[in-house]
Design a protein that fits this description.
With 326 residues, the protein is mainly β. The protein has one helix at 58-68; strands at residues 12-15, 23-28, 33-36, 43-50, 69-76, 79-86, 97-104, 110-115, 120-125, 129-133, 138-151, 156-159, 162-169, 174-187, 192-205, 210-223, 228-241, 246-261, 266-270, 276-281, 284-288, 293-298, 301-306, 311-317, 320-325. The chain has a 25-stranded mixed sheet that branches. Strand 22 and strand 23 (301-306) form a beta hairpin.
């Protein structure tokens, strides 16, 4: 039989098959949490290892639990409550435990999850989701609903999800793929990777690069310390960087394009044949678009109407700007 520290072997399992779980509340002081919807066998599994993955017997784990921890699992009116916490503040860290939960419920369940030091994963759910960790990553997949997640020190990965998504990290990268709806993504110290998104997307970082492709809708993005590379963008775009170059490729402009770089070259490609109101300003401006242009062109400025005017294209750069046809 596998030992207790083997993550494939739960320390404890409780069936939830007859409980009709609608809401999942999990709080643990040092382990990871995962919630999976669409389960054929609803249950909660508890995994326990010693700190630093210490090899502990089941008896030793029980002894430490009884001495230093409170572990409660209860169900009431369709609400699952699972809590693991220290009984006192001055616990010996070397004798500490990492207590993790894996929850398998129906797809319609909502969650409220909190851990002080592990990752959180949610998958295949349609309810509203709230989750927070002080030191682990967030993984979100196949979620439909109002999603709010926060980590103080890990990366975020969200995919195949939609409706209303707000995810924040103080110190990791963010990857968003194949999502739609309203997305707000924020990191204080990592890169952004945005692919196959549709809707209203507000994604910012204070200290990393931004890469995006196949975004349709309204994209507002910015970084204080990296380059910006966006391809296959349709709709409206507001992008800025204080610490790198910028490349943006527009397939279609709906209302506006607004680009600003205070530290590098800006390269913008635009669709041909579309009416645009242009306002391009930098130390050097290179403008090479087919069509009928009326306005002012000089070394450091292009202001006027292309093909009779239309959507606003405003570009500001401290160095040079190149605007050309796709």
């Amino acid at each position: 039989m596998a030992s207790a520290q083997d993550n494939r072997t739960p320390y404890l399992t409780r069936s939830l098959a007859s409980d009709g779980i609608k809401n999942v509340f999990v709080n643990t002081s040092g382990g990871s949490i995962s919630v999976n919807g669409g389960a054929q066998e609803p249950r909660i599994d508890v995994y326990i290892v010693g700190n630093n993955n210490q090899n502990l017997s089941k008896d030793e784990i029980k002894k430490r639990l009884d001495e230093d921890y409170t572990l409660d699992i209860s169900v009431n009116n369709g609400e699952l409550h699972a809590t693991a916490k220290h009984k006192r503040n001055n616990i010996n860290w070397r004798k500490g435990l990492s207590i993790s939960f894996k929850v398998y419920v129906n797809k319609q369940a909502s969650t409220n999850l909190n851990t002080s030091g592990g990752s959180i994963s949610i998958d295949n759910l349609t309810g509203n989701q709230n989750f927070e960790t002080s030191g682990g990553s967030l993984n979100v997949n196949q979620i439909t609903g109002i999603i709010k997640g926060e980590t103080s020190g890990g990366s975020i990965n969200v995919s195949n999800s939609k409706q209303d998504i707000t995810l924040t990290t103080s110190g990791g990268s963010i990857t968003a793929n194949n999502c739609q709806g309203k997305l707000k993504l924020e990191t204080s110290g990592g890169s952004l990777k945005l692919d196959n998104l549709k809707g209203y997307i507000n994604a910012t970082t204070s200290g990393g690069s931004i890469n995006g492709s196949n975004v349709d809708g309204e994209l507002i993005t910015g970084t204080s310390g990296g380059s910006v590379n966006l391809v296959g963008i349709s709709g409206s775009l507001d992008a800025s960087t204080s610490g790198g170059s910028m490349h943006a490729q527009m397939l279609r402009v709906s209302k506006y394009v607004k680009l600003e770089s205070s530290a590098g070259h800006v390269n913008l490609t635009l669709p041909t044949g579309q009416g645009l109101d242009l306002d391009l300003r930098a130390d050097r401006v290179s403008f090479d678009m087919p069509g009928n242009f009326n306005g002012e062109k000089s070394k450091d400025k292009v202001v006027g109407k292309l093909n009779g005017g239309g959507a606003t294209v405003q570009v500001r750069g401290d160095n040079s700007i190149t605007v050309s046809a796709k």
